[in-house]
């Protein structure tokens, strides 16, 4: 852009002309004749459509033209003028056109006609060039020194100097020729032809001013036309006096808020908005437009920059509540660790002053991890839409605010944007706003991204991108209005790139001159946008200086008063910063309504009914695959025998919750069928394309809906989305299943930053369930381990302290923990734990390591008895065999979890050690069932305690359970390790090694002398 400026300077400056030369002949053409877009069939059709017509027709036109040039279509006018200009002096006017069409003149005219066609084509191409590439030379950088597209090139097909007309075989003499406008432009307004000079001037105004638009990659012509019309129509960017005054008032608030914080807390980090103050009126403007279009709930996500300002001036969080966050002496009232002020969320219902309608605004709490909140916001928005029946996104919408470096650099942006059009994930259009201050901490964009703009990622979903110079508040407001209208019209994503600057360092303590000296010299000289805009409005007579000063003083006073009252606050209430309150679920004080354990068993008829539906096809004339038929027959047999496998256990959990009005949503890669082909929740008609049946939705007439959806191939994005979905309501079971548990690590940030510490940081409950297929089955390093060690390491129960609760141990312990980690070994227990998740009076994330080979293993079935009324989730499954009959004689107790239990039980049987060795399963690993483990350990008072796992020693559960076993035994009994040796990779890729390892640790597990004489 800077180079363009230099060129334009020459072109436009004084005598050479530039914009002036373009304007020299400006003004609307004389008279409209026939609009070729509406009527091309009259005798006055444009020359292009009749140039091959008869000579008498041409004569008719010619005589009409001679009489008065305005009698004919502008294109005929241009044609005859050209013809006249290139004929020998005096000839054309005197001779009839039919004569002109003879001999030399005939061929000359034919050439002329061809030239007219070519010139029109050239002009059409030129118009298109501006539509495609005009943004490259738009004046986007308020500092005037940088290229928003990282390149100072000027496209050769934009007319930035007169000589560039040559690109189209045109020259200066063509500037005053009129050209017919194509139907793909609106620059003419009411006029259908314009002189070339005016065409270029209007294209410059539309595409190369303070707004640069990228949209020509959009595949849909109507959408392109819509955008052209919004930006090309002459005079469309008009603001009333009132609108200008509102904009100024909002800019005052935005600017003075930061000034106030800077004055009061000059050495505090706040990540101020200075340099992009226009963000506040921008957001407000898009919210106003959306509210007018019917939106009444806006869910927002944003990073650090300007967040306090958004909370204060967009969400309207009480100022004193914000100010007291700066007081280091205030203690927090809530449990948990809390978070820094520029991460907290907020939920606020208010009246939109512009539309007088109710609107709820929520800003989601987020971690430092840039962009991580994007999918969470989308999930929350989707859930609100879903529960409100807002199938088109006409009531609820999301707005995401980004930094330029983060938007370009973070992959989760792409993952989130790719959810935007998927039926089970779309939020029907998100407005993305990039605060493009042209820097990321200390890094220049040139080394931070390979794409021209930070926003290019949005092109993949055909989202239009509006770049705008943030120092032109009216241009910004216009773009925001159009973006909101776009979203309301097409329900698709749209991006606003607010090209701005960062007045200070990365934070208020940072020195930007170390790394960006020249940029910051310019920034120091840069007049504040508020000053520029207020001067302009005062000059225009929209406000007086006095009115302006009064408005400033009024807001300063509001801040001072709030500051004074913030001093009265004695305690910090993080609870007041909750972004997703569940008022009916908790008591008024935010406490659970009860604290006792809940029976999770089911009536026989419910089990039977669900079992039958799970083994049938509820639709008529629906032809399923023979393999699926076989599976359903197998299920029917199980049900007849009152038995269930894993898939049926899951069916029982989901189906029974649906019966009670609990929405169940299962999302993840290939979850509909199930990676291991065991689930089959969506049946496909083998003869009718796309005809499907979800039997789970045919259980009961008044059941809650069941959503099962194959996701895009993303973990970070989709898990974040489901976490957000689970925030909207406590009365829903939201599950995300990893294809294999191993892949959860590409969603690590959602796990580490949101799921594990979410409640501690932001006092909000979340009951999301993670299903992570796990187990060492010789499938190599990447299809074996869901990395239990990581989840356990983040569990907060104290390893060295035996918890003593006065009430229900199980529930109290769950209430205290940050999440629940289980590895169920039976379908019944899996069903119980899913039901417990919803029947608990609070919500905690639940991590379930799920089986693979056990899905089909006959040993691993449950009886309906295990799910009968009165039964419940077993945190520990004790040994019930011969060992338990005579516990004093038992020599060894092997504690384990998950699938290895079946391998141990088989081996024990083979070695006939059932009286000597007890095997006890930990089904809930965290929080650690101290009470039940103690009971079991005490029961077998003379036995060695062994922990056996199939994972490597530095992985799995050992590091977590070991200190807890020692606490249970008061350090008087050791806990011996049996399992694989330490390793770097989670599993071997070699089958032989795999079985060898298994054999070795099985041998140790059943060698009763293995630990004799050994020290721990
Ligand atoms: C995922 C992640 N990586 C690194 C950081 C450290 N960090 C904090 S702000 C920042 C620069 C962000 O630049 P940009 O997105 O342009 O936002 P700006 O601060 O300029 O508003 C970085 C690298 C982070 N917070 N998150
Ligand atoms: Mg930046």
Automatic annotation (TrEMBL):
<keyword id="KW-0479">Metal-binding</keyword>
<dbReference type="InterPro" id="IPR001017">
    <property type="entry name" value="DH_E1"/>
</dbReference>
<dbReference type="InterPro" id="IPR005475">
    <property type="entry name" value="Transketolase-like_Pyr-bd"/>
</dbReference>
<dbReference type="GO" id="GO:0005634">
    <property type="term" value="C:nucleus"/>
</dbReference>
<keyword id="KW-0460">Magnesium</keyword>
<protein>
    <recommendedName>
        <fullName>2-oxoglutarate dehydrogenase complex component E1</fullName>
        <ecNumber>1.2.4.2</ecNumber>
    </recommendedName>
</protein>
<dbReference type="Pfam" id="PF16078">
    <property type="entry name" value="2-oxogl_dehyd_N"/>
</dbReference>
<keyword id="KW-1017">Isopeptide bond</keyword>
<dbReference type="Pfam" id="PF00676">
    <property type="entry name" value="E1_dh"/>
</dbReference>
<dbReference type="Pfam" id="PF02779">
    <property type="entry name" value="Transket_pyr"/>
</dbReference>
<keyword id="KW-0106">Calcium</keyword>
<dbReference type="GO" id="GO:0030976">
    <property type="term" value="F:thiamine pyrophosphate binding"/>
</dbReference>
<dbReference type="GO" id="GO:0004591">
    <property type="term" value="F:oxoglutarate dehydrogenase (succinyl-transferring) activity"/>
</dbReference>
<dbReference type="InterPro" id="IPR031717">
    <property type="entry name" value="ODO-1/KGD_C"/>
</dbReference>
<dbReference type="InterPro" id="IPR032106">
    <property type="entry name" value="2-oxogl_dehyd_N"/>
</dbReference>
<dbReference type="GO" id="GO:0006096">
    <property type="term" value="P:glycolytic process"/>
</dbReference>
<dbReference type="InterPro" id="IPR011603">
    <property type="entry name" value="2oxoglutarate_DH_E1"/>
</dbReference>
<comment type="similarity">
    <text>Belongs to the alpha-ketoglutarate dehydrogenase family.</text>
</comment>
<dbReference type="GO" id="GO:0045252">
    <property type="term" value="C:oxoglutarate dehydrogenase complex"/>
</dbReference>
<feature type="domain" description="Transketolase-like pyrimidine-binding">
    <location>
        <begin position="644"/>
        <end position="857"/>
    </location>
</feature>
<keyword id="KW-0786">Thiamine pyrophosphate</keyword>
<dbReference type="Pfam" id="PF16870">
    <property type="entry name" value="OxoGdeHyase_C"/>
</dbReference>
<keyword id="KW-0832">Ubl conjugation</keyword>
<keyword id="KW-0539">Nucleus</keyword>
<keyword id="KW-0496">Mitochondrion</keyword>
<keyword id="KW-0324">Glycolysis</keyword>
<dbReference type="InterPro" id="IPR042179">
    <property type="entry name" value="KGD_C_sf"/>
</dbReference>
<dbReference type="InterPro" id="IPR029061">
    <property type="entry name" value="THDP-binding"/>
</dbReference>
<dbReference type="GO" id="GO:0006099">
    <property type="term" value="P:tricarboxylic acid cycle"/>
</dbReference>
<dbReference type="GO" id="GO:0005739">
    <property type="term" value="C:mitochondrion"/>
</dbReference>
<keyword id="KW-0560">Oxidoreductase</keyword>
<keyword id="KW-0809">Transit peptide</keyword>
<dbReference type="GO" id="GO:0046872">
    <property type="term" value="F:metal ion binding"/>
</dbReference>
């Amino acid at each position: 852009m800077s180079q363009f400026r230099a060129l334009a300077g020459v072109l436009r400056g004084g005598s050479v002309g530039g914009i002036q030369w373009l304007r020299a002949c400006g003004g609307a053409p004389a008279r409209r004749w026939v609009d070729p877009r509406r009527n091309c069939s009259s005798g006055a059709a444009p020359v292009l459509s009749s140039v091959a017509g008869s000579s008498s027709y041409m004569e008719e036109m010619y005589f009409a033209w001679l009489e008065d040039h305005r009698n004919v279509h502008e294109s005929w006018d241009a044609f005859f003028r050209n013809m006249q200009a290139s004929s020998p002096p005096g000839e054309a006017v005197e001779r009839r056109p039919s004569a002109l069409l003879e001999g030399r003149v005939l061929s000359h005219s034919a050439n002329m006609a061809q030239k007219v066609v070519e010139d029109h084509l050239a002009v059409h191409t030129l118009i298109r060039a501006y539509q495609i590439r005009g943004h490259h030379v738009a004046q986007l950088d308020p500092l005037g020194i940088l290229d928003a597209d990282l390149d100072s090139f000027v496209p050769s097909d934009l007319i930035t100097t007169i000589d560039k007309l040559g690109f189209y075989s045109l020259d200066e003499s063509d500037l005053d020729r009129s050209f017919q406008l194509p139907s793909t432009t609106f620059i003419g307004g009411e006029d259908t032809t314009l002189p070339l000079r005016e065409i270029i001037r209007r294209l410059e105004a539309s595409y190369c001013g303070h707004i640069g638009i990228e949209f020509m990659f959009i595949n849909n012509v109507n959408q392109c036309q819509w955008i052209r019309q919004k930006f090309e129509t002459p005079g469309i960017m008009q603001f009333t006096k009132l609108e200008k005054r509102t904009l100024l008032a909002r800019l005052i608030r935005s600017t003075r808020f930061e000034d106030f914080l800077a004055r009061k807390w000059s050495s505090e980090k706040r990540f101020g908005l200075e340099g992009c103050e226009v963000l506040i009126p921008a957001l407000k403007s898009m919210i106003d437009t959306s509210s007018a279009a019917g939106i009444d709930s806006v869910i927002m996500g944003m990073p650090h920059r300007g967040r306090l300002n958004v909370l204060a001036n967009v969400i309207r969080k009480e100022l004193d509540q914000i100010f007291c966050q700066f007081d280091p002496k205030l203690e927090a009232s809530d449990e948990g660790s809390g978070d820094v002020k520029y991460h907290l969320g907020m939920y606020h219902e208010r009246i939109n002053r512009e539309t007088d309608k109710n609107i709820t605004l929520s800003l989601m709490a987020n971690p430092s991890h840039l962009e991580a909140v994007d999918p969470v916001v989308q999930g929350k928005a989707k859930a609100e839409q879903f529960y409100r029946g807002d199938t088109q996104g006409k009531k609820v919408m999301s707005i995401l605010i980004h930094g330029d470096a983060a938007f370009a650099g973070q992959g989760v942006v792409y993952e989130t944007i790719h959810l935007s059009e998927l039926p089970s994930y779309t939020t029907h259009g998100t407005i993305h706003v990039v605060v493009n201050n042209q820097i990321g901490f200390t890094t220049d964009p040139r080394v931070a991204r390979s794409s021209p703009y930070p926003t290019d990622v949005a092109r993949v979903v055909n989202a239009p991108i509006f770049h705008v110079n943030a120092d032109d508040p009216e241009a910004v407001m216009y773009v925001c209005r159009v973006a909101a209208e776009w979203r309301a019209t097409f329900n698709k994503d749209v991006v606003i790139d607010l090209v701005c600057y960062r007045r200070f360092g990365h934070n208020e303590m940072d020195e930007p001159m170390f790394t960006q000296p020249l940029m910051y010299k310019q920034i120091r000289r840069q007049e504040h946008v508020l000053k520029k805009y207020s001067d302009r409005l005062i000059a225009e007579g929209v406000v007086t200086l006095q009115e302006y000063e009064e408005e400033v003083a009024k807001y300063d006073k509001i801040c001072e008063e709030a500051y004074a009252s913030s001093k009265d606050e004695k305690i910090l209430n993080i609870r007041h910063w909750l972004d997703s309150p569940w008022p009916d679920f908790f008591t008024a004080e935010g406490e659970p309504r009860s604290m006792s354990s809940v029976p999770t068993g089911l009536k026989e008829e419910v089990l039977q009914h669900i079992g039958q539906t799970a083994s049938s096809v509820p639709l008529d004339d629906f032809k399923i695959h023979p393999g699926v038929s076989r599976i359903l027959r197998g299920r029917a047999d199980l049900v007849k025998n009152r038995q269930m496998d894993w898939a049926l256990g899951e069916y029982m959990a989901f189906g029974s919750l649906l019966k009670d009005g609990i929405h169940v949503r299962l999302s993840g890669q290939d979850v509909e069928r199930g990676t291991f082909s065991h689930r089959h929740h969506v049946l496909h008609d083998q003869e009718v394309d796309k005809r499907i049946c979800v039997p789970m939705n045919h259980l009961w007439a008044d059941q809650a809906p069941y959503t099962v959806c194959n996701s895009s191939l993303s973990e970070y994005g989709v898990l974040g989305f489901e976490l957000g979905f689970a925030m909207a309501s406590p009365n829903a079971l939201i599950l995300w299943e990893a294809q294999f548990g191993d892949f959860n690590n590409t969603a690590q940030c959602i796990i580490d930053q949101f799921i594990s510490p979410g409640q501690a940081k932001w006092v909000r409950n979340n009951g999301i369930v993670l299903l992570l297929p796990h187990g060492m089955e010789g499938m190599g390093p990447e299809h074996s381990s869901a990395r239990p060690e990581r989840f356990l390491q983040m569990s907060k129960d104290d390893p060295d302290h035996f918890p003593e609760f006065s009430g229900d141990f199980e529930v109290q312990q769950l209430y205290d923990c940050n999440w629940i980690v289980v590895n169920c070994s039976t379908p019944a227990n899996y069903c119980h734990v899913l039901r417990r998740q919803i029947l608990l009076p609070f919500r905690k994330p639940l991590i379930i390591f799920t089986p693979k080979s056990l899905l089909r293993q006959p040993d691993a079935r449950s009886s309906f008895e295990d799910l009968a009324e009165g039964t419940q989730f077993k945190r520990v499954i004790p040994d019930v065999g011969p060992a338990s009959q005579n516990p004093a004689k038992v020599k060894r107790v092997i504690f384990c979890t998950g699938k290895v239990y079946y391998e141990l039980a088989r081996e024990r049987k083979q070695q006939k050690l059932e009286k000597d060795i007890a095997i006890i399963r930990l089904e809930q690993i965290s929080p650690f069932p101290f009470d039940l483990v103690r009971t079991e350990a005490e029961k077998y008072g003379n036995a060695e305690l062994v922990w056996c796992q199939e994972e490597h020693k530095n992985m799995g559960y050992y590091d977590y359970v070991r200190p807890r076993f020692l606490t249970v035994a008061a350090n008087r009994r050791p806990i011996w390790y049996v399992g694989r040796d330490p390793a770097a990779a989670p599993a071997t890729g070699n089958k032989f090694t795999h079985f060898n390892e298994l054999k070795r640790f099985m041998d140790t597990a059943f060698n009763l002398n293995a630990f004799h004489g050994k020290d721990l």
